[in-house]
Design goal:
The complex is a heterodimer. By secondary structure, chain A is α/β, with parallel strands linked by helices. Chain A contains eleven helices and eleven strands. In chain A, helix 1 packs across helix 9, helix 4 packs parallel to helix 5 and helix 6 runs parallel beside helix 7. Chain B is mainly beta. Classes of the chains: A alpha/beta, B mainly beta.
Chain lengths: 278, 662
């Protein structure tokens, strides 16, 4: 099989390392990096594991082998491949969490939330109906506020925060980036509205909590699928990651006087509402 | 208030582009949203300690309350602190003092603005009107009730007023505000701010004036211009530099047309003095993702005033400077321990020829350590101490220990004990006004620091279902070596005033804050304090003939604090755009130690009505508000320390404010 990396930064390296460890020695892995332009040698592979959106795009531009796209957000994958016929077959292990799981997590951390605040930009591409349904099933509602431009983030933030109990981050770098995170966290803290982030980075910065899947967790799941592929010569349907990591910022919780449940309690609550890993 | 639309009604599939891409930066590959590194924004020093885990009783007054109070100056807001006395020596000399005051130079509290100590030598009071601080720039005020020298250092004898101003990133855009009212109340404020990739800043310019009290014999109007700049620059994801500067200059009315001195036959003519205050503060903060934090800061503050009235020498005036360099290191050792240690060096100078023979300077050194230990999820201990060399030859340790026990996560008991010191002020130790014919000061005795031993038991409870929270405590404070006037006969012979450690004070009482938020639109805060104080003469006076006079003070000591005092602040959002708030302030008979007469029962009602328009934070939005202070009563008597001020009344004040955002 061929491992096609979209990047050489840490997450991709970690993925590669763990995948190599988990695969049986019988499976030969040849690693290619997009940036290094080693075109032409990918042809002979049984399976191409494309890591990241750029790799997935590149692999599907001239598909000669079945493709397993990993570490791709579902929305990105859908926008590229949904409804398209890729002849040797394509599947994916998404990087993001299904909305149900994300919302179950939110309610396991903050059971008393009534209004879930959401900021979106004109470029946000997300399937929101599962989010709305999940929040509604917990008895809450979503308060969404559009951010028309970076300059107007400030007033949009004030508006969404004045009507929300929690702010839920979404994968949109127009809203959540290294520059804006400062403003978002300071303003939400002033309103005593906690932020639920998308990664450890968010929690380090000051988000109350985050649920995410690490590259090593994706690698383990990918290894299993590769082994299954070798045995059955077929790809499973695209799926969300099975395993996830929970990160909590206890200092922020304490300061906001939020009594955080333990991680095991959060996982237990999530199992009870059905959103946990199997 | 703007109510964001509920997204439920739009439960469609995908949110679609509405604007051209140009308004936004370029998107990178989708998974980067999950791998991005962020700077540490909410680091240890930015996070406020929850009240249920604080080592002291604490009153937090946030922006909402400040606005709702309708107050025009910071001191007025402090009426919302249980046990706090707010008084005026004249319309332009407000002061605040916790658990009783000796005079208008309330000097037994530490007062900090963004960590900068603002009480000033030589007398230790705070020139509230002069401080380059705009009430609209305040994020919150934390008032520690009880000694906190272990964490806040010198002067934190009875408590700490810590004012935290808004972050540099808090203002985006520009606004102008105008206030007009009776009694000459007039104010213009302009604000501008921007937050960018690496740099945020906000700038406030203001001009305010009023005529002071209505009593005509006192000249107590004021005019002040001020400027405040705060900026924050991020060097990288860990390091940032916060830079602040402020400036204020003012004209103050002084003089009392009725003030007649029988010895000198001297009347204080009404006139104007010029004041100037400024500061500069630089904080370098390194915040690490593991919760550790390193902070290095430097500030300089200065104040000067100039009075052109010739007395003995050509001009009266002084120049005060303070430089301080501080270091603070926060070490988070997992969830269970947090250690904060640091050191400060400070230099205070006062060039005040009318008070001191020569310019005075004090070099103060402090080192402190504070450890917060969490034994279990419900038991927390705070232990700390500060060692201080006050530059006058006194070296003291101020320790503190507190246990907080969460009976349930919502109900907490706190028990604590602490010892703190107040070093003598420059004036108390080094004053020399022996050139004066009447009431000259020249201290000849060595004055020791005042000492407090404080014990308290507190309870904090939250009843979430009902929207009620309660914070209550009982305390016992014993102050010894209380510094007081010690008259003696100097060659002349002239009765001259020095200082000595002459009294002991014992304070006991109950303080509580009850909060009730029964809906999103309604909020009530009720503060109540019951206080008892007694004094005893413990030192030896120089003149035996003065002992009865000291005894007179000892006898009137129980009136130093009002037996009962309290405040109520009610805020009601009437419609999404219309907000009403009202404050009620109650203070029973009280006598500041040097006042000629007790102040009788004060009952005062303030009201505010505000209408907002436009989209909050966007161009074209704003607010119009109307405030009436002392609404239902013509007046009440204020503090007065001279016979001529017997009719020193606070009359009703009305003012209108309009704010427009650009």
């Amino acid at each position: 099989m061929t491992l096609l990396l979209g990047d050489s930064s840490a997450p991709y390296q970690v993925f590669t390392e763990i995948l190599r460890q988990r695969l049986p020695a019988s499976i030969r892995v040849s690693v290619q990096e997009l940036a290094k332009e080693e075109n032409g040698s990918a042809g002979a592979s049984d399976l191409v594991v494309a890591v990241g959106m750029k790799a997935a795009e590149s692999a599907t531009s001239d598909p000669r082998s079945p493709i397993l796209a990993v570490m791709v957000p579902k929305s990105g994958y859908d926008s590229l491949f949904l409804g398209k016929k890729i002849s040797p077959g394509i599947s994916a292990i998404y990087l993001d969490q299904p909305w149900e799981r994300q919302v179950d997590f939110l309610y396991a951390v903050l059971p008393e939330v009534e209004r879930v605040g959401l900021l979106y930009s004109p470029e946000t591409r997300l399937e929101v109906s599962p989010l709305l349904n999940s929040v509604a099933s917990h008895g809450g509602s979503v308060v969404a506020q559009s951010v028309q431009s970076a300059e107007r983030l400030f007033s949009s933030l004030e508006r969404v925060l004045s009507g929300s109990d929690v702010l839920l981050a979404i994968p949109d770098s127009r809203i959540y980036n290294a520059t804006s995170i400062r403003n978002i966290l300071l303003t939400s803290y002033r309103h005593e509205v906690p932020l639920i982030g998308l990664s450890q980075g968010y929690v380090n910065a000051g988000a109350l909590a985050a649920i995410f899947t690490l590259p090593e967790q994706i690698a383990e799941q990918a290894a299993k699928q590769i082994v299954t592929f070798e045995q059955r010569r077929g790809l499973a349907a695209p799926s969300y990651p099975e395993h996830f990591t929970i990160s909590l910022n206890k200092q922020v919780a304490r300061s906001l006087e939020i009594h955080l449940p333990s991680e095991s309690e959060i996982r237990k609550r999530m199992r009870n509402t059905g959103g946990a890993e199997r | 208030m703007i109510v964001p639309f509920q997204y439920r009604q739009f439960s469609t599939v995908i949110l679609i582009a509405l604007l051209p891409h140009s308004a936004w930066a370029i998107e990178e590959s989708g998974e980067q949203n999950y791998f991005r590194e962020f700077p540490v924004v909410l680091s240890a020093s930015r996070l406020k300690q929850p009240q249920s885990e604080a080592p002291n009783a604490m009153t937090v007054i946030d922006r909402e309350m400040i606005v709702a109070s309708g107050a025009r100056n910071v001191v007025e807001i402090l009426r919302l602190v249980p046990g706090m006395y707010v008084g005026y020596d004249s319309g332009n000399v407000p002061f605040a003092s916790y658990h009783g005051a000796t005079d208008q130079y309330a000097r037994r509290m530490q007062v900090l603005i963004d960590g900068r100590t603002v009480y000033l030598p030589p007398v230790g009071g705070v020139d509230w009107l002069d401080i380059p601080l705009h009430i609209g720039d305040i994020e919150r005020i934390e008032v520690i009730r009880g000694p906190a020298a272990a964490s806040h250092g010198a002067n934190s004898l009875q408590g700490v007023i810590s004012i935290i101003t808004r972050d540099a990133a808090s203002t985006n855009g520009a606004s102008v505000a105008l206030t007009q009212g009776n009694g000459g109340i007039s104010e213009v404020t302009g604000r501008f701010g921007q937050s960018g990739d690496d740099l945020d800043y906000r700038l406030t310019l203001a001009n305010r004036s009023d005529h002071g009290y209505d009593l005509k014999i006192i000249n107590d109007g004021s005019r002040t211009n001020q400027l405040n700049l705060r900026s924050n620059y991020r060097l990288n994801s860990q390091d940032s530099i916060d830079f602040q500067l402020g400036y204020s200059d003012g004209i103050r009315g002084v003089g009392n047309t009725a003030r007649f001195n029988p010895v000198g036959g001297f009347t204080e003519p009404p006139r104007e003095i010029k004041t100037l205050s400024d500061y500069l503060q630089i904080d370098w903060l390194r915040a690490l993702p593991d919760g550790n934090e390193f902070k290095l800061n430097y500030y300089h503050i200065s104040r000067s005033y100039l009075d052109n009235m010739p007395v003995v020498i050509d001009k009266q005036g002084y120049q005060i400077h303070r430089h301080e360099l501080g270091l603070q290191h926060t070490l988070s050792q997992g969830e269970y321990n947090r250690l904060v240690w640091g050191a400060n060096v400070r230099r205070d100078t006062a060039d005040d020829p009318l008070t001191f023979r020569s310019p005075q300077a004090l070099n103060v050194f402090q080192v402190f350590v504070h450890d917060e230990m969490r034994f279990t999820s419900s038991l927390l201990a705070n232990v700390g101490a500060m060692y201080e060399d006050d530059g006058m030859g006194h070296r003291n340790w101020s320790p503190r220990a507190t246990l907080n026990y969460h009976v349930t996560p919502e109900h907490t008991l706190r028990a604590g004990a602490s010892i703190a010191y107040r070093s003598p002020m420059m004036f108390e130790q080094y004053s020399d006004t022996s050139y004066l014919v009447s009431r000259p000061f020249k201290n000849v005795r060595s004055v020791n620091p005042e000492k407090i031993v404080s014990k308290e038991i507190g309870y904090m409870g939250e009843f979430k279902e009902t929207g009620i929270s309660l914070d209550a405590r009982i305390y016992q404070d014993r102050i010894s070596d209380y510094i007081f006037l010690d008259p003696y006969v100097a060659p002349g012979p002239v009765l001259t005033f020095g200082f000595a450690n002459l009294l002991a004070e014992s304070h006991e009482g109950f303080e509580s804050t009850f909060k009730f938020r029964w809906s999103e639109r309604s909020n009530l805060v009720f503060n109540y304090a019951h206080q008892r104080v007694s004094c005893a003469a413990t030192g030896t006076m120089t003149l035996a003939a003065m002992v009865p006079r000291l005894q007179t003070y000892v006898n009137q000591c129980p009136l130093l604090v009002p037996a009962d005092s309290g405040s109520i602040l009610l805020t009601q959002q009437l419609t999404p755009r219309l907000q009403f708030s009202t404050g009620y302030y109650h203070q029973e008979k009280v006598q500041v130690l040097d006042a000629q007469w007790p102040q009788n029962l004060m009952r005062r009602v303030d009201m505010r009505m505000a209408y907002t328009f436009g989209h909050q934070g966007e161009s074209g939005s704003g607010e119009v508000s109307f405030v009436v202070q002392n609404a239902f009563q013509h007046n009440y008597t204020e503090y007065s320390n001279v016979p001529q001020k017997t009719g020193f009344m606070f009359n009703r004040r009305l003012y209108l404010n309009a704010t427009l955002e650009f």
